[in-house]
Every structure is written in structure tokens, then in C-alpha cells.
Write a structure and sequence with these properties.
mainly alpha, single chain
Length: about 220
């Protein structure tokens, strides 16, 4: 096997491992819900948006015939479905959660109908689906910026997860390289904001270490 082929295989494996590692961070929330029989301190919307993101990229990978995208997002979709099911089971107010789920799934079904019926050309469908997935992924990476502003305001990083930050950084870097190797901007470009926001989070962890957060809270009391 040529050197380039070996590198591509290794890069593909790295993308799978890092991404599944990032998705598996939700297992701690799953364990929390199971142990406490509640959804206290667990956010539902990230599970739902990640599910939609996984299903979109799964469709893109299937249309493109990319095994790496298919494996990662198929497993990711299964995990998010598990998290969503657990949240629905333990959530006392199911109506609002079901409404959010139905709304996003309805948008997803409309998207499938549009790409399947109104865009018959496979190449045009691939490009438009790639653009949709890219925009959605970028919006996901940029959505926590409000939390970062809150960290600066409160001088506390308690609302941030260091392990998730590292997982997001490694995942974003690996997929950016993967997209670059494939010359696929739809894969490469949307992961760049993930790299940038991860470095911002790491800087915040350095600026406001959690030990300092505990001392700060003690002084406040």
C-alpha cells in the first residue's frame, strides 16, 4: 500500500475514534439520568441538534459513498437516539420536549423530501446537502459562544467540560484534515469553527482555572 493510502486509512480511523469519543461523552449524562431518575442539570437540545446533524451527514456520506462518514454518523445517531429516549423517559414535562423533537424531525423530513423529489440530479443533490450539513454544523459549533461570554462575565469555567473541549478539538482537527485530503470543503470548512472555539475554551480554562473558581465562590460567600 502506498504511503498516501496508509495515511488516509490512519486518518479515517482517527476520525472515527475521536468522533465516537466525543459522542460518548453523553454517556455521563445518561448515567446521571439513570442513577437519579431525573434530568436535572442535563440539557436536551444538544442531543436533538446532534441527532439531526448525524442524520444529515449520514445522508451525505451515503450519497457520496464515504464509509467513514457512514460509520461515524450511524453510530452517533444511535447514541443520540438513546440519550433522547432516556431524557423523554425521565423528563417530567414531556410536552415541550416532544414538541421540540417533532419540530426538528419535521424539518428533517421536509429536507429529505426536498432533496429526494425536487433535486433529481445526484451531483446537485450532493452539493446542496453538503452545504446544508456544513451550515448546520457551523451553527452547532458557534452556538456555545453565549456560554463563553458568561464564563468571562462570571470568571468561572464550571459550566464548561474540559474533556468535551479536548474531544471537540481533536475531532475538529481530524475532520478538517480529512476534508482537506478529500478536497471536500463541505467537510473541511465547518470544522474550523470547532477548532477556534475549542482554543477559546482552553484559554478560558487557563485564565479561570476551576480551583480558582472554588476560591472565588468561597470569597463571595
Amino acid at each position: 500500500m502506498e504511503t498516501g493510502g496508509v495515511f488516509d486509512s490512519l486518518l479515517s480511523g482517527v476520525c472515527v475514534v475521536f468522533t465516537l469519543g466525543m459522542f460518548s461523552t453523553g454517556l455521563s449524562d445518561l448515567r446521571h439520568m439513570w442513577m437519579t431518575r431525573s434530568v436535572d442539570s442535563v440539557q436536551f437540545l444538544p442531543f436533538l441538534t446532534t441527532e439531526v446533524n448525524n442524520l444529515g451527514w449520514l445522508s451525505y456520506g451515503t450519497l457520496k459513498g464515504d464509509g467513514t462518514l457512514i460509520v461515524v454518523n450511524a453510530v452517533g445517531a444511535v447514541l443520540q437516539t438513546l440519550y433522547i429516549s432516556a431524557y423523554l423517559h425521565y423528563c417530567p414535562r414531556k410536552r415541550a420536549v416532544l414538541l421540540q423533537t417533532a419540530t426538528l424531525l419535521g424539518i428533517l423530513l421536509l429536507g429529505y423530501g426536498y432533496f429526494g423529489l425536487l433535486v433529481p440530479d445526484p451531483e446537485a443533490r450532493l452539493q446542496q446537502l453538503g452545504l446544508f450539513c456544513s451550515v448546520f454544523t457551523i451553527s452547532m459549533y458557534l452556538s456555545p459562544l453565549a456560554d463563553l461570554a458568561k464564563v468571562i462575565q462570571t470568571k468561572s469555567t464550571q459550566c464548561l467540560s474540559f474533556s468535551l473541549t479536548i474531544a471537540t478539538l481533536l475531532t475538529s482537527v481530524s475532520w478538517s484534515l480529512y476534508g482537506f485530503r478529500l478536497r471536500d470543503p463541505y467537510i473541511m470548512v465547518p470544522n474550523i469553527p470547532g477548532i477556534l472555539t475549542s482554543f477559546i475554551r482552553l484559554w478560558l480554562f487557563w485564565k479561570y482555572p476551576q480551583e480558582q473558581d472554588r476560591n472565588y465562590r468561597l470569597l463571595q460567600t
